[in-house]
Amino acid sequence: MSTEHLIQIICGNPELTREYVNEFQNASESFHLRPIAWFAEVRQRREEASVFLLDESGIDDRSKEGLENAVNWLAEVGPVIVVAGPERQTELTFLLTSGAADFVARTGNFVPVAVGLAERRRRLASGDGLGLSSSWGEERSSDFGEILRHEVNNPLTGILGNAEMLLARRDRLPASAVERLETIANLAVRLRETVRRLSNAAELR
Predict the structure, then answer these.
(1) Longest Cα pair distance anywhere in the chain, in angstroms?
(2) Most buried by CB count within 10 Å: which residue of 27, 55, 111, 165?
(3) Residue boundaries of the structural domains of the chain
(4) 6-204 — its CATH code?
């Protein structure tokens, strides 16, 4: 099966998994969804996906795999949307600022936020975003990649997170506001993907 539209949902809570699946099925585009209860199962198979949606309930407390290790491993395979308690965000600082993962706090109506972000990441991961030549990195230094990650991704994370939170309440907003918020979110994701590619290319040098 092509990974272009494959979303792998890793969630140890069956009821919450159904919420994620229903939200994806109500989305504007079609996805191949593969729900898996535990991260350990994904690690055994090492299957590629367009996007991984990792809910913290999918990390088995009995295993040695922590959230940071799980996200780090998945990020080598594809983009990761992490859904966890707000207090877990600090332990993922490096992965978030590098653009390897995005974070959604498990507060309020977080399921539409996570699904909306996964949709955007999937579009970019499948080539709908900007394509950059790897030779670009030959003209830049690794210092530039570091600046991009820390000085650009940090504010972008805030912009994107706030836009997605507002979009989760789209039923209360006028159509014109929803359209503008969609534009903000799409451009923020596009910029994050560009930053990730540019910084990776710079470090290849």
Answers:
(1) 50
(2) 55
(3) 6-204
(4) 3.40.50.2300
